[in-house]
Amino acid sequence: MEKILQVKNLHVSFRTYGGEVKAVRGVTFDLHKGETIAIVGESGCGKSVTAKSIMGLIPNPPGKITDGKILFKGKDLAKLPDRELRKIRGADISMIFQDPMTALNPTLTIGEQIMEGIIQHHKIARSNARKKALEILELVGIPSPKSRLKQYPHQFSGGMRQRIVIALALICEPEVMIADEPTTALDVTIQAQILDLFRDIQKKTGVSIILITHDLGVVAQVADRVAVMYGGKIIETGTKREIFYEPQHPYTKGLLNSVPRIDIEDAELVPIAGTPPDLFAPPAGCPFVARCGYAMEVCDRIYPTQTLKGNEHQVYCWLQDARAKTSFATKR
Amino acid sequence: MATYLIKRFFAMIVTLWLIITLTFFLMHALPGSPFNDERNTSEAVQKNLIAHFNLDQPVSVQYIEYLKSIVQFDFGPSIKKSSQTVNDLLGRGFPVSFELGMVTLVVAIISGILLGIVAALKHNGVIDYLAMTIAVLGISVPNFVLATMLIQQVAVNWELLPVATWKSWKHMVLPTLALATGPMAIIARLTRSSMLEVLTQDYILTAKAKGLTPFKIVFKHALKNALLPVVTVLGALAAGILTGTFVIEKIFAIPGMGKYFVDSINNRDYPVIMGTTIFYSALLIFLLFLVDVAYGILDPRIKLHKKEGR
Fold first, then answer.
1. Which ranges does the record mark as transmembrane (chain A) (predicted)?
2. Is A243 within a domain?
């Protein structure tokens, strides 16, 4: 499959008064045409920062891409000046944000907000932009779009607003759409509708989607591939089936165990004890070592090498190493 | 909207009536009469004068009579400046005061907003500190001090601009500058802080993610939201500028309304006091009304009229 976007060894740091926060420390993944990759992980694992880096939306200062490449159509987005990035933002790669209640400008009509992107990038007349906006609103399922165009965000419900946010991300027919926790702020029934919409749009437009989420239920519904992030690194990646049915990394297993289940009676909810590592001084070894039940001495010192479990299934864990016998594993 | 306007109009009338009533009775409560310092007038002449201006009647009767003439937009004759009516004075002085006030307001708003935006965009930079230093100076230096300093430096020492009076645009520069600096400083500080807040909002990130130019992000997406608190203070600032014109007109010898207003109080020239007070009040009430309308235009969430169905 054609690789549309390649992120290679991405490092992002933030300079603060307390020191340098290494939020993303060597993230590598590919996005293929027409697929959905989900980046999962808990708060502060660097998933949003990764997404914003691709768009060049890391506030600089204090944020900075310190190393790595983001290859898109033969260009390295990590090194592109802002003027060039602007032409790609919204046109080729667009982004959907978490909270639809605040992501729309309260003082502009939604028609204006949808149309301005395409007017900016494709230099088309307002009347054509309006036509296009109507089509897009139809696509994202806004009833009677014609009269809705003239309305303001406060006249829409949360779910409707998220559809509008999606509409303005789609107006320029981008090849990549980054959705940063698109359903977190919505209630469950609306969540399901929005996720259906994602699949529907992908079928119709062939857009590739990077889905940032901490919700494994969302992942299960829409993702093709999954990358699990922890402490600024991707610690396991694979197809959805591989991650859900054969998780290899103790953290991935822990994540799956901490999902509430209604299909198993008396299923115990097992949280992962402890807190994520301090990214001011990230550990030299595996970032999960302090919370891992199977941690060995080596985990503390050296970052694990990649182990290939399948064609796509990669995991970074010393337990995968042939030398790691279960008897060796000193339980903490 | 129409019902709102009608309601609002009546509220404005009531406000104005309250002001008229209060001013009228307060004015008559002042000791002394307009003819106190008329020298060499015999008792009989004084009596005649008082009778001529109906001042011998009870205050309540005078009040009713005054309201009657006000309704016909007749502010009566000036007691001190014989053969002139208050309408004449207003007609002569108001255009000048209005010109000074409006030019000042426009200058203060535009320069204040621009200064605020620049300061916010260059947050914590040299330009920001410079702009805010100017703003603090502008707020703390009273306009009459600034006016005299400007006259001394620009008009007297450098001889760049005329010292006083009101003829060409050159005469307007110094009084406008003296009067506009304070309000400009207030607007600049407000714009800066509200701009800084707006720039961190999610919808600004959305606008950036659309690939809009920084210019569009600032002027189309941020400014409209950032202006709301600025518009709120505009009414009060306009009042400040109006009263500021009294002092500035005096310093620069500008033939506006301010002079008549101050003189009339010293002279207890009842009709002129009333006339100028009513005139300024009406103007201020109208400006406040404009501010409310501007609010509704800037922020669609604020509805001026009763809710219509969704």
1. none
2. yes
Reduced to 3 states (helix: H, G, I; strand: E, B; else coil), residue A16 is strand
Does residue A219 lie within any of the structural domains?
A: yes
- Can you give the pTM of this predicted structure? 0.80
The H or E element spanning position A229 is strand A225-230
Tens digits of per-residue pLDDT, B206-264? 999 998 988 999 999 999 899 988 988 888 888 888 878 888 888 888 888 887 888 88
Q: Domain for residue A133, yes or no?
A: no
Given a contact cutoff of 8 angstroms between Cβ atoms, the answer to whether B163 and B155 are in contact is yes
Q: Which CATH superfamily is domain B94-270 in?
A: MetI-like (1.10.3720.10)
CB atoms near residue A164 (< 10 Å): 25
Domain containing residue A287: CATH number: 3.40.50.300
Domain count, chain A: 1
Tell me what ipTM this predicted complex has: 0.85
Q: How far is B12 from chain A (nearest CA, A)?
A: 28
Shortest alpha-carbon distance between residue A238 and chain B (Å): 29
List residues in chain A touching B: CB distance below 8 A: 55, 57, 86-91, 94-95, 97, 99, 102-108, 113, 116-117, 120-121, 152, 154-155, 165, 168-169
Nearest to B205 among A87, A97, A169 (CB): A97
Type of residue numbered B227: L
Residue-wise pLDDT tens digits, B50-94: 777 778 788 888 898 888 888 888 888 887 777 788 888 888 888
Interface contact flag, A108 B221, Cβ < 8 Å:
yes
B207 in A contact zone (CB under 8 Å): yes
Reported residue count of chain A is 332
